[in-house]
Amino acid sequence: MFLSILYMPWVVTSGLILAGVFFFNKYFEAVIWIIIIEVLYGPEAVSLIEHRYAFVMFLLLAAVFTLKRFIRFYD
Questions:
Q1: What are phi and psi of 64, to 5 degrees?
Q2: Cβ-count burial of 17 within 10 angstroms (0-12 exposed, 13-18 middle, 19+ buried)?
Q3: Is residue 31 classed exposed, middle or buried when 0-12, 13-18 and 19+ CB atoms within 10 A define those classes?
Q4: What is residue 64's predicted lDDT score, i.e. its pLDDT?
Q5: CA 11, 15, 13, 48 torsion-angle sign
Q6: Fewer Cβ atoms within 10 Å of its own Cβ: the N or the C terminal residue of the chain?
Q7: What is the dihedral of CA 53, 66, 12, 46, to 10 degrees?
C-alpha cells in the first residue's frame, strides 16, 4: 500500500483502500493510510475545511464499512 501511495495517483490508491475493506475482515489500517496520504499530499493550510480529501474518504470509508455489514460473504 505504501508503494501505491508513493507511485500511483490518488484515485487508484483510494480505490485500493476502499477495496481493502472487502478483502480483509477488520481493515482499520485504512484510517492510517488516509492520514498518511493527507500528510504527504494534503494542503499545508491549518484550516480544517482545506482537508476535503480526508473528510470525503472518511465518509466513504464509513459507508463501505456499513455496506459490508449488509453483504453476505460465503467461503
A1: -70, -40
A2: buried
A3: middle
A4: 92
A5: positive
A6: C
A7: 10
Q: Which residues contact 38 (CB under 8 A, 6 or more apart)?
A: 51, 53, 54
pLDDT digits (tens, 9 = 90+) for 9-50: 889 999 999 999 888 888 889 999 999 998 888 888 777 778
Closest Cα partner for 52 from 44, 43, 64? Answer: 43
Dist. CA 75–CA 73, nearest whole Å: 7
On whether the CB atoms of residues 35 and 54 are closer than 8 A, the answer is yes
Contacts with 45 (C-beta within 8 Å, 6 or more apart), sequence order: none
